Structures are given as C-alpha cells and as structure tokens.
Write a sequence for this structure.
C-alpha cells in the first residue's frame, strides 16, 4: 500500500507532510470511525472556490451565469468520478470487506466523495495554493480548451426555467426502478409535470444522470407541443 500511496502522491503533485491526512481521505465510513466525510465536506467548499478562481482567470469576459454553469459541470459527480478514475483512487480506497465485495471501489458516488476528500486533505496539509494546484492539475486542461458558451444549461435547469417562464409548477422526480449490481446500478427516474399531465422517463448510472435524461426528454416533448398548432401553444 505504501508504494501505491507514493505513486498516488506523484500523480497528485503533492507530498503530504501529514500522511495520516492522506489515509483518512481514502477511508470510507464503512472501514472505521476515522473516515473521510469531514474532509469531503471541506473539499467540496475548497473545490468550488478553486474552480471559481480558475474560471474567473480564464473567462474574463463571461458573466456570472456563464461561470456558474461551467462550474456546475466541473464539480458534479460525473466529473469528479472521472478524475478519481484517472488518479487510480479505486486501487487505494479503504473499504470494509462487505463494501469491497459489493463493488464499492467502483461506485461513482464513493469515488467522487473520495476525490473531494483528497482536495480537502490537500488544503489542510498544504494550504489553498496547494489545493488550487491540484484542482488546476485535474481540470486545467478542460478549462483551458473550452469556451464558456459551449457549456449549455443542464436539462433540469433549462426545464425548470422553461416552465417558470410560463408560470407552470416545477417538475417532480422519482425513482421508478433500479437494475444491475450495486457497483454498476442503472437508475430509472420519472420526471412529471402534473399541471400538464405529462411524464417522461430517463435512465443513468446515477440518480442525477437519470434525472437529467428524464428532464431532457420532457423538455423535448414540451418544445414540440409548444410549436404553432401544437397542443401547448397559446
């Protein structure tokens, strides 16, 4: 494990003065009382500040709304999960035997949480500049190679704004089913707009992803109905 932690620190670009912080960041609550949830809480705030700083630096002409949308894409579970996989966190997580047998080391939510905990641990160990350097290492290439207007609103946000503009109550979401093993579950979510008696389903590897897909389908259906001559047209 020590060799793997040494290699991880090389990939992070940060050597921990306090190795116990690194160990705690990689410890799931199923493993023991000294787990990573407090560091995850801290890391979430540090990540948002670091990403905001990088976006402020990169997109000097963009307004608050554009920057907020780009940040939301970067700090969401899917992005953190990909970063965790790229760093090889699945190989160094500390999980209970039961959680490990159930595929916990591959679960997107656990990996994303560990990624945030690592950012929090880096902040505690080395201060904000070291945490910022890590976030730049993780997301700098993506931030540097895109334009703010390429990051459209996510479907849930766009759907909510579409409905609110027409004074229609916001949609509701509920899980209607799950399939697959615990480490590779597929969620099915229903998005409903009761005021219009409409519902659409979406599927994804996380509840959030399924909700976004259901919202995308609902928005597409609403826009078709809102065309001239359509059932929703005024």
């Amino acid at each position: 494990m020590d060799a793997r932690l040494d290699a991880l620190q090389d990939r992070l670009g940060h050597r921990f003065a306090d190795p116990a912080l690194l160990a705690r960041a990689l410890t799931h609550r199923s493993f023991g009382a000294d787990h990573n949830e407090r560091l995850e809480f801290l890391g979430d705030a540090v990540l948002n500040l670091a990403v905001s700083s990088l976006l402020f630096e990169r997109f000097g002409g963009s307004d608050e709304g554009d920057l907020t949308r780009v940040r939301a894409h970067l700090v969401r579970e899917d992005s953190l999960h990909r970063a965790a996989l790229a760093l090889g966190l699945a190989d160094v997580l500390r999980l209970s035997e039961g959680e490990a047998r159930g595929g916990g080391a591959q679960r997107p939510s656990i990996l994303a949480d560990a990624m945030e905990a690592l950012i929090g641990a880096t902040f505690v160990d080395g201060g904000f500049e070291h945490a910022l350097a890590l976030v730049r290492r993780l997301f700098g290439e993506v931030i540097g190679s895109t334009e703010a207007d390429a990051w459209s609103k996510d479907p849930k946000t766009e759907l909510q704004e579409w409905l609110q503009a027409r004074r229609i109550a916001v949609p509701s979401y509920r899980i209607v089913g799950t399939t697959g093993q615990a480490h590779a579950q597929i969620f099915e979510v229903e998005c409903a707009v009761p005021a219009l008696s409409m519902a659409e389903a979406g599927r994804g590897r996380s509840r959030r992803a399924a909700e976004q897909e259901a919202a995308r389908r609902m928005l597409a259906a609403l826009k078709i109905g809102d065309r001239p001559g359509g059932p929703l047209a005024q």
